[in-house]
Amino acid sequence: PLDKLYIVLVTTKASNILEDLETLRLFARVIPEYCRTIDEREVSDKVFELIFAFDEIIALGYRENVSLAQIKTYTEMDSHDEKVYQAVRQTQEREAKEEMKKKAKELQRQRMEAQRSGRSPYTTGIGSVSSGTGPMVPTHTSEMPLPSNPTPSAPVSRPKPSGRGMKLGRKGADIDTFVDSVRKDGGVVKDSNKIAAPERTTTMAPAVSSSPLHIRQEEKILASLHREGDVDMFEVRGLLCLNVSAEDMANCQIAVAANDPRHIQIQTHPNIDKRAFNETGIVKMKQAGRPFPLNTDVGVLKWRFQSNDSMDLPLVINCWPSESGRGCDVNIEYELQDTSLELYNVTISLPVSSQGGLNVAQCDGSYEHSQGQLQWTIPLIDKTNSQGTLEFTAPGSPDSFYPVNVYFTMNSPFCNIRVKGVSHAESEQPVHFSSECSAITEQYTVE
User: Fold this and answer.
1) How confident is the model at residue 163 (pLDDT cuts 50, 70, 90)?
2) CB under 8 Å to 296, separation ≥6 — which residues?
3) Who wins on pLDDT, 272 or 13?
4) 373-381 and 366-370: which strand pairing?
């Protein structure tokens, strides 16, 4: 019993009563985390949250070895792709509405000009207007012109419509290019010349692949570091996506090797067999015989790594500004801690005043100083150049050279989670696939 309600656990006769009692106790601890009062109304309001939490406790009739803290962590993990999709959709809807308002105002203005000149305000330029002794009859009349109709540049009747009308629902590469650029940059790109209809945003273009079965593995790296060397926050978020374009390959399974000794939280999609993944590392559908969706990026696995230990950082930045008679002498050093990693397109940016002279004494790589920012660029950091230095003198105080922002990309994952192979779910025959892997810094700051 739990206040006014009862928790009922249905088991088989062969179940272990001690494990059943422990499972009931865990259910009883989970419910107060989501319900302020234990009554029927509050439970009904929080039914979906409770279902998701219960799904972490019981999977395929078996109890998962999880604690209350782990349940809260798993259920609170959000989807970066979903946020990007919602941002793209809202932006496209907003731009489409603004464009419709502009076209409606333009049509209203043209109609008023036509009325002042004595011509018919409803002539659209499609077809012709009779000019005999009878009354003039336009080929098309409407009390409220639609913004999506072709609009003439002048209210004079023409045999062909003008091509300046609004283009909603435009098909082809416009939407694909827009969505791809947003997903790659992690932001929202606005283009007033390419407006897509809101209903077209329900399908996002998959990454270009060289195989009917394509696997994409991506990671986002976030770090907030203190100038004294302490780590305020270090987090890596990973996602494994599958895109199948051939129907005969949809019923497949992915062998994943998760051999990272660090504590990494791994979560499978609700439709993925969690028990099979935990025991064998196989990612497959929970329902046997059910294929993966076609022509859609499906996130089947996601993981998260968190640490406050500076030894876990891929790149350590040391900034030493010291006051001198000419301003500040600044010495910046980088160090690659894991020499097995390869960092590409590394950019270390810090604020440096454009007023006064900048004197660079040493630079391992190249630099550019513009608009109050000094950008130090290293094309590649690996075991052959795991350390580097930038020394310069510039006006300012030691605090004026912070924050230091770091950007880099990797072609291999930071967490040791890799795809070993793909096979057919029933015959277990190997399936040819293509794959891509990327890791980028979403935030890497020294303050």
Assistant:
1) very low
2) 203, 206, 243
3) 272
4) antiparallel
CA distances for 291 relative to 202, 274, 379, angstroms: 21, 16, 42
Label residues 141-168 b or e (16+ Cβ within 10 Å = b).
Answer: eeeebebeeebbeebebeeeeeeebbbb
Top pLDDT among 239 and 139 is at: 239
Q: What is the pLDDT of residue 67?
A: 81
- Say if residue 202 is exposed, middle or buried (CB neighbours under 10 Å; 0-12, 13-18, 19+): exposed
For residue 334, give the H/E element and its range: strand 327-336
Helix axes 80-116, 173-185, angle to 10 degrees: 130
What residue type is assigned to position 283 of the chain? V
378 contacts: CB under 8 Å, gap ≥ 6: 334, 346, 348, 364, 365, 385, 388
Give me 314's structure tokens.
Answer: 């891929």
Beta bridge partners of 255: 282, 421
pLDDT of residue 206: 40
Buried b (16+ CB within 10 A) or exposed e, 299-325: bbbbbbbbbeeeebbbbbbebebeeee
Q: Structure tokens of 335? A: 């160090």
pLDDT, greater one: 132 or 5: 5
Do residues 398 and 323 make contact, with C-beta atoms less than 8 angstroms apart?
yes
Burial status of residue 230 (CB atoms within 10 A of its CB: 0-12, 13-18, 19 or more): exposed
Q: Which of 60, 59, 50, 46 is nearest to 29 (CA)?
A: 50
- The whole-angstrom separation of Cα 85 and Cα 214 is 20
**Threshold 0.70, pTM exceeds:** no
Percent helix, strand, coil in the chain, to 5, is: 25, 30, 40
| pLDDT surpasses 70 at 345 | yes
What is the DSSP-derived secondary structure letter of residue 254? E
Q: Which of 43-52, 125-134, 321-330 bottoms out in mean pLDDT, i.e. has the lowest?
A: 125-134
**Helix 68-76 × helix 17-34 angle, to 10°:** 50
Short-list 186, 119, 183, CA closest to 157: 119
Number of residues assigned to the chain:
447
> What is d(CA 277, CA 59) in angstroms, rounded to the nearest whole number?
12
- Matching residue, tokens 């489409």: 96
